[in-house]
Amino acid sequence: MLSALLLVSCTFAADAILGVAWEPFSRTDAISDGNWTSGTGVGEFDGLLKPALTFHGGIATGDDSVLIDLGIARITTTRWLSDGYSQVHVGGLHLGATWRHDLERSESGRAVAWGEIGAYGVIPSARDVSDAYTEAEQEDADESAAQIRKTIGGVGGRLGPGFGIRIGEDTLVGARFHAVLFRGQRLEEASLTVSTAVWGEAALLFEVRL
């Protein structure tokens, strides 16, 4: 990822950005209702896919920046049996993009305020296979895995301001706040439940320009 950012930044005369965001009061920690979680450990509200500390990277040119954030979580369970083996996995890929625009700088150029808007998706993965399954049992397992994928997946958007202080020429320490909208769904045996969640998300930032 670092080499790709450097290549793009050189090609378009832009700066590459690498950073971390820390959410000390993550909304995931405050959710205790099991109905909010997928129950797999890898959904948007399950905690593994989006921990309190996340990484991002992108490019900046002038007052505009494009940032990419990525989160991956996967749980695989394999059992060896006397007549074969079985393997079950569930996973989620959180992929997001954010556009940031610097709004105002102090006279010294050290303090900067910005606004940003972005979107993200949770791409699900789930599978249950065994060489001991009959054809009918494998079809049932595939159907169950499809339901789990629908439970894990979803799309969201975010919008909010940020403020930072530049240390030297290449380092930024700051904070940002996002209003986040997420839409997910849960497919059960005889019903489809669609849920929309809205919350506020504050984070401390540390970024370096390369």
Percentage of β-strand residues:
over 45%
The CATH first-level class comes to Mainly Beta
The biggest beta sheet reads: 8 strands, antiparallel, barrel
Strand order of the largest sheet: 1-2-3-4-5-6-7-8
Q: Give the CA-based shape.
A: elongated
Structural class: alpha+beta
| Rg over alpha carbons | 21 Å
Tell me how many strands there are.
8
Instruction: List the uncertain runs.
Output: 4-11
Secondary-structure element pattern, one letter each: HEHEEEEHEEE
| DSSP helical segment count | 3
First-residue to last-residue Cα separation: 13 Å
Tell me what you see in this structure.
With 210 residues, this protein is α+β, with helices and mostly antiparallel strands. It has a single domain (2-209), classed as Porin (Beta Barrel). It contains three helices and eight strands, in the order H-E-H-E-E-E-E-H-E-E-E. The chain has helices at 2-11, 27-30, 135-152, and strands at 15-22, 53-61, 64-81, 84-105, 111-130, 154-167, 171-187, 192-209. Strands 1-2-3-4-5-6-7-8 form an eight-stranded antiparallel beta barrel. The longest helix is centred in the C-terminal third of the chain and has 18 residues, at 135-152. The chain is elongated, with a radius of gyration of 21 Å. The model is unreliable at 4-11 (pLDDT under 50).
Topology (SSEs and partners):
Blueprint: H1 2-11, E1 15-22, H2 27-30, E2 53-61, E3 64-81, E4 84-105, E5 111-130, H3 135-152, E6 154-167, E7 171-187, E8 192-209
Antiparallel strand pairs: 1-2, 1-8, 2-3, 3-4, 4-5, 5-6, 6-7, 7-8
